[in-house]
Batch of 4 targets.
Target 1
Amino acid sequence: MMEATNAELYRLVLTDAPYVIGAYAILWIAFVVYLSMVLARMMRLEKEVDLLESAVSKRSGE
Amino acid sequence: MKQLRTAIVLVAIGGLLTTAAFLMAFFTAEVQQFGTVTLEQEVDTVFPVAPDQFQPPAGEGIAYVRPWFSQKIFYFHVPVAEASFLVLIISAVFAIRFLTSKRAEFDTKSRIAMETALVFVVLTMITGVLWTRASWGVWWEWEPRLTTYFIMMLMMIAYFVLRNSIEEEERRATYAAVFAVVAAINAPISFMITRVIPSNHPVVFQPGMASSNLLPFIIGQIGMLMIGYGIYTARMTEERLRERVEIAKEALEG
């Protein structure tokens, strides 16, 4: 049996809060990090494709 | 780069929808109950008094309904989990198409879908473990849903180990396709297991869900599927760029 205060009830509910906020934060941080990595790789590949394809077209023009 | 723009739009809309679902979970969804709390005496509170059968004997305090705050994880844990099942099955469908046609593009699509599904599976595990800790007081329990889902995750990791262990392209693609189909069989098993074997894990889809709870769940689910499709599209765009690099390298070397 607990001390009879309204704050005690709220305290019980709020013990769950870090898990709820943590779960949502981890979810979004993971998505952002994963997509940032994909985008960074794509930008690098895009530059590589441009360089290589221009080299190929130069060679075929020679 | 049209596909990349599509991916960004999908992820952005998906992000907005899942955020809306998260906010609705707190501001409009009906609060679920998780047990009771007994206080020494009656207090002035918004928490409702528990039904008579939960009340202690006279003079030993008063029981209040305990709001289930950690249940709010449901509104993003379940959409991520459902998306993981769906994307895994899509990976298996591409795997079957590869096995019947032997076209390399289906192997690539199956692999990218498997990778996307694995991202969702890992996130389902993390959000699930946090919910388990908040609700059951433990980080893990070997109950049917968690165990079958864990096995499914291990098989998905094994899929990539298998791919990396075979050098010959066609043999690798064939073995991986068969393994993807076997891994996907776990999806319906894990989904249905809580309906067949008694489990602590809640059964999500059942009649009587309040519309105030159903709406944020559906919005979150649509948002999560859009994010999943966005990730898949972005990864496919990356793979196509990688193929162009390889073709250009071969042209230069030849």
Note: The mean pLDDT of chain A is 86.
Target 2
Amino acid sequence: MTDAKAPTDAPGDCNARVQELIKYVKLPYDHVELTGEIKVPKIQRDSMIKVHAQQLTSKDTLARLGYPTDGLIPNWKEVFLEKMDEILKKYKSVRLFMDICVRCGACTDKCHYFLGTGDPRNMPVARAELMRKVYRRYFTWPGKLFGSKFVDGWDLSEEVLVLWYTYFYQCSECRRCAVFCPYGIDTAEITMAAREILNSVGLVQKYMHEIIDKAQVLGNNLGMQANAVVNSLEFVRDELQETTEIPEIDVPIDVEGADVLFVTPSADFFASPHIESLYGYAKVFHQAGISWTMSTHASEGGNFGMFVHNYEHMKKINKRIWDAARALKVKRVIGGECGHMWRVLSSFSNTMWGPFDYLDAKYPRPQHICEFTLDMLKRGALKIDKTANAEFTATIHDSCQVARGMEMGGQKYGQFEIPRGVIKGVCEKFVDMPENTIKERTFCCAAGQGLLGDDMMPTRVKGAMPRMQAYSYVKKENGVNFLALICAICKAQFSKMLPTYGFPMEEVGGIHQLVGRAIVLGAKEGI
Amino acid sequence: MGGIQFIINMALGSLIYLGLLIFVVGFVHKLYNVYYKTPQPLKIPQTPQPTTLGGVILRMAGDVLFFRSLSKGTTLLFFSGWIFHVTFFLILQRHLRYVLSPVPACVTFLNQAALFIGFVLLLALIVLLVRRLLDERTKYVTNFSDVFVLLLIIGIVTTGIMMRYEPFRPDVVGVKGFISDLLAPATAVGYMTLHPAHAPASLMFIFHLGLVSILLMYFPFSKLMHSGGYFFSPTRNMINNPRDVRYVNPWDKGSKEEATK
């Protein structure tokens, strides 16, 4: 695919020009008025065109990731098309989704970013067309023969790059659009491909790629050294022993021969409200009487490598977990509350590092903490006092990657029933939000898949609108006052969004926060 | 045989042969070499994806026959789209009577309703076109090709319906003879030696068939490939059991040695 003679229009400094156009500027933002209803907005052209993610400039980091270190490279058109060609040949999803879209419009009002902003390029089909226009021009016969006008395509230009960088970083790869697409066209796949193509020419987003680097170099997203991991987990243990007054309760680290290796997002180690769930996990393991351990080598469950079609990064990050599982000779691997981490763990890791024949075949490999806790609840291994959660009327925000990306419990819809089962098992009052905002149709928190940085506040606030409307609806109708989550990114996003939309921050928490409160410790029955 | 008739015969014959050739070669090439052969590295099935093969087949059947995924979204699009596809299919299968001899009952059972179905098909197409031009969001993403293909099919359907009325009604025996001639191997040889099949003397028919040939030629290069492409869609055709059954990435098969290194 090199027949496209990159026309070096005005040789000059293409990098400087593009940098000027995608420069990060701190923009003011305001939330959408809450009515409890999700209205489809009128199109407002270019309303979000000024929102640009910050770029990664640290040369060391860029070099480690294998991307150009000095911004846009001079021969970018060539590299761009080579990378695109490579991805089209390696990913059936991308190749097929370029071809078969009929632009029927079914997805146009499904994206939370479009609903919140009205920017037409945030309609999934319009976002994908940003790539299709290039695809039709350079990768189809009519485009090659008759040029861009004939196929409604685009010749590569700096303007195209700018649009790509802008709008492929306003997609949180939540896959909601694909639910409604008659052919299952998954914009997430297209966005992942676009991001890797941008990376290859030197336009690398900061927040996400910094983390991809840290996870490979240090083993976790927060960039903690092993001793810092130990310190913070010891703090968690001390805290637990103090509050529960049970000296045996533990957060074991690197214990060889434990039954369970537990991995979770490193945010759980000290961020709020994440840490409350970590207390919950520890209490569940303690009360179930199952030996478990965390690992300093696999100190991160999350895997930001998934957000880009750079298979190697994702694979390398994921390896730590399976290396740790082998080294610690565990029988099971259980993962904590996290969305995309779950998609990688459950759907991808068997392909990348399987088969897991060294683990206990009786249990799903790996297993979700909700599967584990619900199983313990059903078997009566946990003594629960629901009155501890009497003050709460809970609802659940289905995390996009869990809701649409995996199975749980080996059954269709398990990923909806099992977390709800856990909540209902520990909390008397539970209400679901309106049907079109939950389960397979759930809305993304609007910060997932690499868009949680402060630079993305304008889209985070606007994109959270659908969920906030649904939440305010059940709040008004049913007095809901707890938004239960199973994802670290959702937790971080909503503890910022709830106050922004006028709700108390304390209404956000993990499912295992509720579990942790309701478990009656000491009354040890075990299994 | 008049000169003009000869030219029409040759032109129409060429158009149809070319159309069929491009359609068959292009369609099979895309399906096999592109959609089938391109590897899919990871399992990306999408909810509500069943955990068994039988379930997946049922789900896909629901999408193909009843547009289940689409029905979750926009009502107008779902209805007009579904009616268009179903009536198009019914009309298409009725055309088998020009190819098959004797005509089986399953082709003729709609005899009475056929014209009505034709009108419903036309109406559905017009709704799709009007919706495309009036709906603000769909209009924004509409390309020229989207309108072109709708107009092309509207042209085909309109000429088809007009042939049911005088004075456009062609000689049915002549049409059938022409088609069976076209498809007979002897005629193909005859065509190459400049002895093409005799087109019936009906402008409307020639027009109809000409548009169909254009559609056939256009098909493999266009979004119409969604017809065959759907079956290769990884969010729909993969079984949701990645933890139980290891899915192997065709370009990274992995090995024990690599995993334990």
Note: Residues 145 and 222 of chain B are 8 Å apart (CA to CA).
Target 3
Amino acid sequence: MKKLMTGNEAAAWGARLAEVDYIPNFPITPQTEIIETLSKWIREGEMKAVFRTMDSEHSMLTAAGSASATGARVFTATSSQGLLYAFEMLYNLSGWRVPVVMVNVSRGLSAPITLEPDHNDILSARDSGFLQIHCETAQEILDSILVAYKISEDKRVMLPTIVNFDGFYLSFTREIVDVPKLEDVRKFLPEYKPTHTFFKASKPLAQGTPVLNSSLYSYFRYQVHRAMENALDVYKEVKEEFNKKFGRPIDEVETYMMDDAEYALLMTNSFSTKGKKAVIKMREKKINVGLIKLRLFRPFPTKELMKQTRGLKGLAIIDQNISPGKGGVIYSEVSSELYNYEEKPKVITSFIGGLGGKNISETEFEFAINYTRKVYEERTTLRVPILLFTEEDKKTSKTLIDIAHGGEKNEA
Amino acid sequence: MIKVRFHGRGGQGMKTSSRILGTAAFLSGFFVQDFPIYGAERRGAPVVAFTIISKEPILERGYIFDPNILLISDETLLLDKQTDPTKGMSKESIVFINSNKNEDYFKEKIGAKVIVEDLTKIALEVLGRPILSTLIAGVAAKLVGIEQKYLEEAVKEELEQIGANEEMIRKNILAATIGYNKVQEVKIEQTESLEPEVKVVEVEYNDPEISTPVISFVANSYLKKTGTWRVFKPIIKYQKCKSCRLCYVYCPESAIKWENNFPVIDYENCKGCLICVQECPLKAIEIVREGE
């Protein structure tokens, strides 16, 4: 059944169709609409789940992990500052090996405080042991939540997953979503039957126990890595089953116009749509360019990425985040994974764009590709990263700063 | 290079011992490192501390696997398989044990150069409490050949830092001196490093039932006999006991059972906290030093 809905509503539909048992929650813009939607459904009897608003995201994630440790299917959602507030619990949940699915609606981090998206929030959770699936469309949000439960609850994985999407540009954007039938979802995602996480008075169990032994600590944390490696295989199985049942591919790495591409943009999340449009425009100008979208970020789909970037003259990575003192996080990740690969792209360039939701225009995408071509063709020295910041951006910034200092008369 | 390893229980002062030895060696002009390892801080739980003294810069970190000198402040630790205080000891190592047993008792068991002294007795006499930090530091300083004046200076410096008053410092310098004079300087045999050679192996994925920090076996704590932590043993004088149950209620370890209308102390698990002695309104529980 096709419906027009926001990204947030699509996330709520994902939780509803997964028939989750428990939703600990805490509001934060731009995520709140997800939990509002769920609370409305529960109140009106359309959905059966326990809905609990906690005192903070830290408590929310603790409750999520604990409930999951008793064998409940748990959903929760947060964003930005909220994710950071809950941060220590991320590592706890992966260590407990509980298959919680959490949505993060990306929003730039304070300071200065903002509401619009970039990916410093979600990428800070890179090493936490949560799987990460990044979404471009509202449809992908719903689909990814179902896929996430299926992978997370697999015995070979048993790790929590974050499904990520951009605030505003996806969270509040309405588009068409094909909502699968509940009976079809049930066939794809049967009831969760835990093997090591359960709650039975007849069989007491201490979970998340302290380990004051470095050998055992190493073993347990490495098992999280091993489980992540397994998740790559499980993802492949699950995406095939999903595609067979629902007719929608949900590949780890999505490609766009890559068949004969010599250059490519590499992106994540909702701005990939803008990137795709820019690719079409560049193709009209006879530039052989395509786009690679990283959907699965943890575990990192290295083999898929090698396959899709093989023999490229240049790969331009657009990072909607910044690691001060280093540059783009995705650039670091991709470059390090491709370094030992013989058929790696000849040039990998790095661009920081869309911080705090700033637009990335077609010209800026074209600038990125042109710069990459120049580096490849003329062997010019590579400068990384380059900030995608226009004359207009500079002018706007100046005007606003002038106003802030009482000098509005100085600037038109 | 001299590597000294201190084994004790939380509250006995092994960290302070290793620091006093470290400071004394530093004041004597050596390169020094000292370092303690302990888990969640609990009185009575095993503690390990280390001091390395060298004429050259020290390229060491963490656990000392091959000590030249081992100081064991609590003989019951020898029974603790996880602590294994004689681990990495060689024939040349010198082992000092605080005990009221004699040297022959340990010689057979340990098979190295063993020195035994009852420091707890001295601590009770001089300090009034079974705290061994300065006594053990005194023993260690003498064994490695530190001059007494540097030991005294180090005791003062370390105890001032933890807020000890003049009286306490005076008593502790006395304790350190007694420890110092109980033993003779030893010749340290320089041996090749004994850090064991290891093999790097693959770690396969295991199902989450195994590979998560879960305990499914109920009440496994009985494997740890916390009864070895005692310095003092409470003994119930049944002729005075009126079965009021206060000791039974107050025991924080549930180590007092109720049998035939009388309390019975489970000595395998009683840590010797002596709360029962404090709470007994009839003074029907006596205190005896362990091993006497």
Note: The first strand of chain B starts at residue 2 and ends at 9.
Target 4
Amino acid sequence: MNWKLFADSKRRIIVSLLFVAAIVAAYSGRLLLSDTRHRGMPFYEVPSFCVMIAGATGVFAVCIASYWFAYLHSEKRTDFYHSLPVSAIVRFRTFYTGCLLVYAGGLVLSIIVSLTFGVPLAGFDAGLFARLCMAAAMTVFFFLTIMNITIYAFCLSGNIIIGLLIDAVLLFYIDLWERVIDLMCDFATHSSFFETKSPSISLIDVYMEAIYPIVRSDVSLGVSVSAFVSAIVKLLIWFVVTYLMCRSRYLKRPAESARSLIAFYSSHLLIKLMIVVPVALMMGNSTYDSFYAYRNVMQIVSMIVTAIVVSMLLEAVFSHSIRTALKSRGSIIVSLIVIFAAFGVIRAVEKKYNSYVPKYDDLESYAVFCPLDSYYYGFNLKYDEDGHVYDYIDAAEYVKSHMILPDEKAILTLAAKSQQTDYHEMSSPLPLQVYYRLSKGAPRSRLIWIDMDDDENRGMLNRIVGPAYYKSGVWQGFDYDVPDDADVNSVDFHDLRADVYTHIGQGQGTAEQILEVWRQDMVRYDYDHIRYDEVAAEIEVHFDGGLYMWVLPVYEDMSLWENH
Amino acid sequence: MIELSNVTKHFDNICALNRVSASFKEGAISAITGTSGSGKSTLVRIIGGIVRPDAGVVVVDDMPIFDNVVTLKRMFVLPEKPYCPSYESAAELADFYAHMYETFDVERMHELAIAYSLPTDVPMRRMEPYARNLMMLAIGISAGTKYLVCDDLFTAMSDEMRSSARKMIVDALDSFGTTFVIALADTSVFGEVIDYTYELEAFR
């Protein structure tokens, strides 16, 4: 480091102090507001708190990195710093550490201010302090990674506007591709239920998913620590990779690029492809959805037109010349080749994916999810060791771990028939998502379509949903007793047809009694008996101040409905 | 000695310098001349270690210049538009350079300022642009480096100002043996003080 490197050190100190003040105001202001009022953060404030902290951290990272590395976009200042007898690596380290110190100063001061003013008002709590430290560590890595990406974007560009645009694209690039694949693929849009816990890759997903259980004071510390450890490893990888990228790009960045838009001439095509390919695929997909009759032709035409227009627009921005943009046939052709290659790969993978049916001998067991009943899959609860409810269980995770269906023949027959007929041609199609557990290899999930007007199909489906195995995998209340220490505030009967609530009672005993009747009624549940009709009413068992509940369906043929 | 061998530089697909070779002798004033767009400024920035050539080598005292602190310490570069924070005075800027160059002589800078009636205690932004350039030249000379590479700060100056710059350069050469490499659109503005002239031709 060479701290005497800055000719404008006075201005840098003043601006840095302003950043520190902004960080302290944002972080400790928000922490003090919630923690001192409630002594710990209630769960309903957590989402907005996480979004605010993540947003503020992102803005600080982009602003601080922009300020410290903005000299790269000024020819005068680049010449000045590059002519000084300081090596490029020392220069990079000095600027980088400068950014880091500004943020670290703000963060440490925020924690000090929060503790100084928060502890006398709300008291000291070791658990809360541990959560604060974990959240701070995660936020530091989140900040550093965004800062690295911003520095990388600034090194890649020769102009601050282009730098910020590249920064935005890079920050959300993985999310963008996830969205493209979601939109394009049937396997992603229709059979994604069991994939909801796919590993988080994007920086924002990693941070947001982990910070939520970490700052929630009603989640046990063990759960928070486990979320923290998993996330911090991912954030560390993000940090190291982005640090190496921005460092390498800084050292290779030519000084003369301060006057151009893109610092590396060789990057023009790469940047174009990075933007044109996902945009064209997305546009193609939107056209596909809008023009059913000619959807395939319209999708291809739309991708071609988008590729040409966006390529030319980017070329016009790079070259400052409409004429050059109109002549940029080479990059348009390369873009089209990459777009259609990506399109072909995605379509081929999707086709192969959707045609999969496991062999009978390979299938150990399976679970199913019926999208039409999706609402009722989402009310299973997480209890801590004291019987205290602290969250809902992810629906897919619950089904995966609790529904063990053994009738392989029924599901394989339905899956094979699903391959034979397009669901558009079925008179009464019912989608069913299946999670196959295999004797060899990882489980696989697929969507199948069942024609419910076919009696054989109906019989097979009844064999799947009729036994208790299925019901245990959907409703926690089917075979899970209310914990002794659970705080059951209210048990209600909700008549959906009249939209009338009836309070049945409260406490564990009432809940157990009504559950017993419901379980007996559900013995006859299948598509020929109870399930042939829509849900008529619901039983709601409210826990812990009404924040969480079990919701159990009541059908017309059930005694609970007849006697209500 | 500063030696260039087959130095080539492109900006995107424009060739700014094509296989330029030269040797700039020590203890002399060398001028790089050429028409507008011939690559004078680019060559100054390459010699000063700011810009890396695409091909060819630049060595200063038998060592590469680019990203080499040892040679950069022997070189003071004045690009076409020298940067200085607008609120800083020449005295403050001299303090900054004194931390960068061990050889920097603050007293000499003040002496030069007095000799050429340049203010050292007012913000640089308040100085007239060419006086500011003259001040930067005084700072560059005070850095005490072996080489001073300078873009064309002089052609647009008034005769009086240019005469002061010329005198400052000649005095530095005589007193300290500083080697000057100066880019000039027109060598006549410096007259007979130039020892060697290197002409660049625009290559397109």
Note: Chain A touches chain B through 25 residues (CB under 8 Å).
